[in-house]
Write a structure and sequence with these properties.
single chain, 279 residues, mainly alpha, two-stranded antiparallel ribbon, two-stranded parallel sheet, 10 helices, 72% helix, 5% strand
Length: 279
């Protein structure tokens, strides 16, 4: 296409699926002057040998680089992260409300009242249960803070080891895709003097392995690593919020002071309001 700015090369468009929508897409692309390639044969993208080279190579690299149990755990977490429910911002507000409820009990009946109030609330939450036990045992606020902060950071460090493993696999998959491409080209070039019909198989392996490597990296491994890291950061923030509330409980601060201190961690849009709780 010639324009006032110079010559513009035509775009190259690939369309998968030649149904009604596919035909319309082809027609539109051609009207715009694009070079169109289309297929409705999805089987051409299936190559067992390419899959084995990319996935087998990526897994082999991961198991060699890391302890096997951590690699297995990383796959379990990948599956779990997409099945687990999302953590909304309302969870943080609810945590503030829970601590304030306990603060009223402590204000009225002392620290022993916390044991009764927290008994049902902390089931299944080992971090919160650990913190409540320290407050009930009579630890000072600074002692609770030091121990809880250490627990938060060490837990975060352990859990993000899996993120590093998944990122490693995300980086390795395209590399093994390129290795598969080289293997396919070697097969193709080795058949140059023979039957020309065998060239297609080698070229298909070469291109499919590159495709698989990029797909596994950019759609499976790297997005999973990002999502797991985001989830762990949210959990760490929530734990810091809860830890601060437990420190204030240990120091026997008033419910309103606890509200203001814990709200300072949050977006103003989700601040907890004691006055609304009383109504």
């Amino acid at each position: 296409m010639m324009t006032a700015a110079g010559t513009v090369l035509p775009a190259k468009v690939f369309i998968m699926g030649v149904g009604v929508a596919g035909l319309q897409a082809i027609a539109t692309a051609k009207r715009l002057g694009a070079i169109v390639t289309a297929t409705d044969d999805y089987a051409i993208f299936i190559s067992v040998s390419s899959f084995v080279m990319v996935c087998g190579g990526t897994l082999a690299a991961a198991f060699i680089s890391y302890e096997p149990r951590y690699v297995i755990l990383s796959f379990k977490v990948m599956i779990k992260i997409f099945a687990s429910p999302g953590m909304g911002r309302g969870v943080l507000t609810a945590e503030v409300g829970r601590i304030i409820k306990w603060a009223y009990a402590v204000q009225k009946n002392g620290i022993p009242a916390l044991e009764q109030e927290a008994k049902k609330s902390v089931k299944g939450d080992k971090f919160l249960s650990f913190g409540v036990d320290m407050v009930i045992s009579g630890y000072s606020g600074e002692e609770v803070r030091e121990i809880m902060n250490n627990t938060i950071e060490t837990s975060f460090g352990r859990n993000t080891v899996l993120v590093d493993i998944i990122k490693k696999m995300g980086a390795a998959a395209p590399a093994f895709g390129m290795i598969g491409t080289l293997v396919g080209l070697i097969i193709m070039l080795g058949s140059m003097g023979g039957d020309p019909s065998t060239l297609g198989a080698g070229l298909a392996v070469a291109l499919c392995t590159t495709l698989y490597g990029v797909i596994f990296s950019q759609i499976v491994f790297l997005p999973s690593a990002t999502k797991i890291m985001q989830r762990e950061q949210i959990i760490r923030f929530r734990n810091y919020l809860v830890a601060e509330g437990l420190v204030l409980l240990a120091d026997k601060k008033s419910p309103r002071f606890i509200q203001d201190k814990m709200n300072s961690f949050l977006d103003p849009a989700i601040h907890f309001d004691i006055d609304k709780m009383k109504k």
